[in-house]
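Input sequence (215 aa), recorded before submission:
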Amino acid sequence: MSLVFVFASYAQMKSKVVLENGSSFIGRIIFKDTTHVKLELSGGHVMVFNKSEISETIRISNLRPEKGLFFQLEPIFYSQNELRFLFHTKMGFDFNRHWSIGIGTGIERLLNTDVYPFYLEGKYHLFDNHITPFLSSQVGYIFPTTRSSNFDMNGYFASFSFNMICFTNEHFGLYLGTGVRYNQLHRKSNVNNSINLKYIDHQTRFEIKLGILLK
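Predicted structure, token format:
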């Protein structure tokens, strides 16, 4: 998967061609030899330059917009006695090329109960490149999908993960990460409608995350 990330990103990597007359063009170099350079612009138009008229060619490693809204889809795999799967979706805002904040929700199954997590997430991208590691941290609250007079469960959670993301263009990125999450679950149940039992469960689990980021 890491190789796919790298090959896909380099296939889409942009370059800036600066001419001797001072003008410049940004696009993807699709052909280059000792005499000519072919540059494909964002609209699909191809320009051909003689090597003699080119002052310099600059590889643009950063494809991420400096700021703006983003949307994420994130399948997560984790193990608690058996391999399990859950799904999260997020919306957020990039304040600059390093710091982001967002909100998220999803669907999970904890202690044989379906729950909705709602959380706030902060992210920090370590480098200003199209391939960069980033750190993410979440804090949130867990709600059950159904409630009854005989059973109720809710709780808090916090998580931290280390991820590697690859932006193939300005609007699309793929990432892979691993992290740890702590859940504090409060359960309440009634026995024969007379005995009210309360429990607090503490869970720590390791997660593997895959994701798609859209801007």
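Checked by second reader. The domain at 68-214 is CATH 2.40.160.20 (Porin).
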